[in-house]
């Protein structure tokens, strides 16, 4: 059946390669003065903007202002802002190509971009002009901002980090192309039905996407399936070639990545799949209409939807198709558009491809295939080039999150790539055996090919063998990669392993999300801090300034009020003022321990309703959750259900007298984060030590003046070191203590037995108190904590509650709290993604800004 739909075997992608043929070529002699003039951007004036906007509305949207819809106006506004950036964009790309600058090729299956309009207006310094121009047209720009649908082309941390990184590289003027996938449907929209997560498709493209530039003329053909054969070529060399069974076309869509008011604009190129031959006329004429378009549907499926898992790969064939598709397009595209003289041996001087986790690692055998099979380089020369062109960032510590692809599936989908991986492994193991003679166990341990439970390619090992550098995303994480996850490799290649602690872009997560705080900082320090964030340390003395603290607190209160207005408008939730805002926003995962947060809430509630403490003795708190669960992750979805059920009971229990509120706004995404994070007082970073690679929400919250309660995990360790122990609520087992307890054998039930408050808390949940008396509903979750508790929530319960008691006590002294909050901001400048980029450039990429 399947074979029928696969298009006939055309020439291979490489033979069909369309190189520069579509450019106008040498005979192109423009004469008109305008055609010779450099591309300019429109006048940076209100009138200039009005003129561009109305032209867009009338000529592009084809409507008059008076008849235009909000969406017409939004699309026209977006396109108008594009005009102001495109001149610089074209100039940048030209300069990068002509100066043969070394570029960063950031390969990522996810880019969680967030809304584009605000950032584009900021980057092009058009905020005021646009607001005035639209007001002059009778339009409130806020209405148009709200019209934008955010491109949810990512799951969480990894995808958002990629977006922060390309923003920083553009702002630093470093030439970079982000390469990824243009999913037709991004991360699902989360709704709650009776407190349970229900996923809705994310049709983000329905109303058009004004920020993308399709370039069908740069389409790339990508092959799949088939078999390989060896042959002897003209000069007697035995070679292999791939005879693919089917192919699709990769359509590129360019997105601008504007630097912050520096005239630099980099490119994000996202690929969308479509059938090489969209429509099969003979089949159609034979009356089988469905069959005639099946190829198109089949091809489009490849980039139809983002896989919503962010830790447990499902090993689905379509996922591998997605990974190979965007990687093959990207490598072909880079060679076509930047290696103009066709001399691929110069590639290492022209690009460093950063592998954003294992998802794009199939790029390694793909480049080898192109260099050996197409460019006819010999293996060793090709391998030397490949090793210089790649570097690998690992973003996880969970063994189950490390991708492996069965040789059965790889051999079927990408037969030539499997051959190449086998050869890479053979040559590598020969080296290992030479270095560790008669230590076959080590060779088997380090082999890229694993044998159990099935023969499979270990993508993290392939990335480590091929990459020039391997880095973790926080000091503790990178140390654990060296000591545990990739120990054999770091022992063999110590110099290959490094660390680059994550960062976040201050443009989006301070300037755009928290304009009040930004103004206060600029009033105090002047401008410049937004691209040199460690200047925030100059705020330290102001922590002692009561006036400054008052302004700081007033801004926090205003941000809270803005959040409350949003939650009331969105979900009809009315929240009491003057509550400590306790925020836990991140993907729902057991290792992140939303369950421990829940135990704290239920324990506090239990003490009030049982009279152990009087409601008015408790520091009034509003607990805010934001979290999506992977649709197939049962325990995560049950935890969401329990959180919503606890919220319902606590929020309506008169005994609690409003001192506790629990809210869980659905569909946590970048846009909601931009309103939530500036309002937070307390940042919950409570993962089991040794499980969270870094975290980036922790950085955003600290930079917006929230105090952190957290374990010594991921980047929390570096946040605590910089802000100071007295301004951080540390608790819990350390990573070595966790390892020791795991080795000794951890029995969660013992903690339940030995801690009466923990017992009372779990018993209350088990009693059905939050499920209308139905004891069975949350029994699986309770027994999972009592008898499994893989992430030791019960072991850290007591220490966590002690830390929360310290939080309660500290918050009473609002001024001392404000002082700590100011110092958190002042001492968190290190967590700018600009600093991360400087580290990547110094330790891994060795590129530099465009001169
Ligand atoms: C389905 C397979 C899969 C496996 C892992 C999909 C996505 C992943 C990502 C690596 C998960 C992820 O987002 N990791 C997070 O990366 C952030 C950026 O470095 C870190 O700050 C977080 O600690 C880490 O969990």
UniProtKB/TrEMBL annotation:
Catalytic activity, as annotated: [(1->4)-alpha-D-glucosyl](n) + phosphate = [(1->4)-alpha-D-glucosyl](n-1) + alpha-D-glucose 1-phosphate
Cell compartment(s), UniProt: Cytoplasm
PROSITE patterns, per the entry: PHOSPHORYLASE
One matching Pfam family: Phosphorylase
Cofactor(s) this protein requires: pyridoxal 5'-phosphate
EC identifiers of the protein: 2.4.1.1
Region feature (Disordered): 1-34
Coiled coil region boundaries: none
UniProt xrefs under InterPro entries: Glycg_phsphrylas, Glyco_trans_35, Pyridoxal_P_attach_site
Highest taxon above the source species: Bacteria
Any GO molecular function: pyridoxal phosphate binding
GO biological process, one term: glycogen catabolic process
Gene Ontology CC terms: cytoplasm
Keywords tagged on the record: Allosteric enzyme, Carbohydrate metabolism, Cytoplasm, Glycosyltransferase, Pyridoxal phosphate, Transferase
Modified positions (N6-(pyridoxal phosphate)lysine) in chain numbering: 700
Similarity comment: family membership: Belongs to the glycogen phosphorylase family.
Protein's job: Allosteric enzyme that catalyzes the rate-limiting step in glycogen catabolism, the phosphorolytic cleavage of glycogen to produce glucose-1-phosphate, and plays a central role in maintaining cellular and organismal glucose homeostasis. Phosphorylase is an important allosteric enzyme in carbohydrate metabolism. Enzymes from different sources differ in their regulatory mechanisms and in their natural substrates. However, all known phosphorylases share catalytic and structural properties.
Protein name per Swiss-Prot or TrEMBL: Alpha-1,4 glucan phosphorylase
């Amino acid at each position: 059946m399947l074979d029928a739909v696969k298009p006939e075997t055309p020439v291979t992608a490489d033979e069909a390669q369309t190189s520069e043929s579509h450019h106008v070529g040498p005979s192109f002699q423009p004469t008109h003065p305008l055609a010779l003039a450099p591309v300019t951007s429109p006048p940076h004036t209100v009138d200039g903007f009005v003129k561009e906007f109305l032209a867009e509305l009338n000529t592009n949207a084809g409507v008059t202002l008076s008849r235009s819809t909000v969406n017409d106006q939004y699309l026209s506004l977006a396109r108008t802002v594009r005009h102001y950036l495109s001149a610089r964009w074209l100039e940048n790309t030209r300069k990068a190509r002509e100066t043969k600058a070394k570029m960063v090729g950031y390969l990522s299956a996810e880019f969680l971009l967030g809304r584009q309009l605000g950032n584009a207006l900021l980057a092009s310094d058009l905020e005021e002009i646009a607001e005035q121009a639209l007001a002059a047209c009778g339009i409130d720009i806020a209405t148009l901002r709200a019209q934008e649908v955010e491109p949810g082309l990512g799951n969480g941390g990894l995808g958002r980090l990629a977006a922060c990184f390309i923003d920083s590289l553009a702002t630093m003027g470093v030439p970079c192309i982000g390469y990824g996938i243009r999913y037709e449907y991004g991360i699902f929209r989360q709704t709650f039905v009776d407190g349970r997560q229900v996923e809705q498709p994310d049709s983000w493209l329905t109303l058009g996407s004004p920020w993308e530039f399709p370039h069908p003329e740069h389409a790339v053909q990508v092959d799949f399936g088939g078999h390989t054969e060896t042959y002897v070529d003209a000069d007697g060399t035995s070679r292999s070639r791939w005879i693919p069974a089917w192919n699709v076309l990769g359509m590129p869509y360019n997105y601008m990545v504007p630097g912050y008011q520096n005239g630099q604009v980099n490119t994000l190129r996202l690929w969308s799949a479509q059938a090489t031959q969209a429509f099969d006329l003979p089949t159609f004429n034979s009356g089988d209409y469905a069959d005639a378009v099946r190829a198109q549907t089949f091809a489009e499926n490849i980039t139809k939807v983002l896989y919503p898992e962010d830790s447990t790969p499902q090993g689905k064939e379509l996922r591998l198709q997605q990974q190979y598709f965007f990687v093959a397009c990207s490598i072909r595209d880079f060679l076509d558009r930047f290696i103009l003289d066709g001399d691929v041996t110069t590639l290492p001087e022209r690009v460093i491809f950063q592998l954003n986790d294992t998802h794009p690692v199939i790029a390694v055998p793909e480049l080898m295939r192109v260099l050996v099979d197409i460019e006819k380089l010999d293996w060793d020369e090709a391998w030397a080039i490949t090793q210089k062109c790649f570097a690998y960032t690992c973003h996880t510590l969970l063994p189950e999150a490390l991708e492996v692809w069965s040789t059965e599936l790889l051999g079927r989908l990408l037969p030539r790539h499997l051959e190449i991986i086998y050869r890479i492994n053979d040559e590598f193991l020969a080296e290992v055996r030479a270095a560790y003679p008669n230590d076959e166990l080590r060779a088997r341990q380090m082999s890229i090919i694993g044998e159990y439970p099935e023969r499979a390619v270990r993508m993290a090992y392939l990335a480590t063998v091929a990459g020039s550098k391997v880095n973790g995303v926080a000091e503790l994480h990178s140390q654990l990669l060296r000591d545990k996850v990739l120990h054999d490799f770091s022992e063999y290649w110590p110099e290959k392993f490094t660390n680059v602690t994550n960062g976040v872009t201050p443009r989006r997560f301070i300037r755009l999300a928290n304009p009040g705080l930004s103004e206060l900082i600029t009033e105090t320090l002047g401008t410049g801090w937004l691209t040199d964030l460690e200047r925030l340390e100059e705020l330290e003395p102001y922590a002692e300034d009561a006036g400054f603290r008052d302004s700081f607190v007033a801004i926090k209160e205003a941000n809270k009020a803005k959040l409350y207005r949003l939650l009331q408008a969105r979900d009809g939730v009315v929240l009491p003022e003057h509550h400590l805002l306790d925020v836990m926003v991140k993907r729902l995962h057991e290792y992140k321990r939303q369950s421990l947060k829940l135990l704290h809430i239920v324990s506090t509630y239990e003490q009030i309703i049982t009279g152990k403490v009087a409601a008015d003795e408790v520091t009034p708190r509003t607990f805010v959750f934001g979290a999506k669960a992977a649709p197939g992750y049962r325990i995560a979805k049950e935890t969401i259900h329990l959180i919503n059920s606890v919220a319902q009971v606590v929020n309506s229990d008169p005994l609690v007298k409003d001192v506790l509120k629990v809210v869980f706004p659905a569909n946590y995404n970048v846009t909601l984060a931009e309103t939530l994070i500036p309002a937070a007082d307390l940042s919950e970073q409570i993962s089991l030590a040794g499980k969270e690679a870094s975290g980036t929400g922790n950085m955003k919250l600290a930079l917006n003046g929230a105090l952190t309660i957290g374990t010594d995990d991921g980047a929390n360790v570096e946040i605590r070191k910089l802000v100071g122990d007295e301004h951080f609520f540390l608790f819990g087992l350390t990573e070595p203590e966790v390892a020791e307890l795991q080795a000794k054998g951890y029995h969660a039930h013992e903690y339940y037995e030995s801690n009466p408050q923990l017992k009372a808390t779990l018993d209350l949940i088990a009693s059905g108190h939050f499920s209308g008396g139905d004891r069975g509903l949350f029994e699986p979750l309770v027994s999972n904590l009592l008898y499994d508790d893989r992430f030791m929530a019960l072991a850290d319960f007591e220490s966590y509650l002690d830390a929360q008691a310290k939080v309660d006590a500290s918050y009473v002294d609002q001024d001392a709290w404000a002082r700590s909050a100011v110092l958190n901001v002042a001492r968190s400048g290190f967590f700018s993604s600009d600093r991360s980029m400087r580290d990547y450039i110094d330790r891994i990429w060795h590129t530099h800004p465009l001169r």
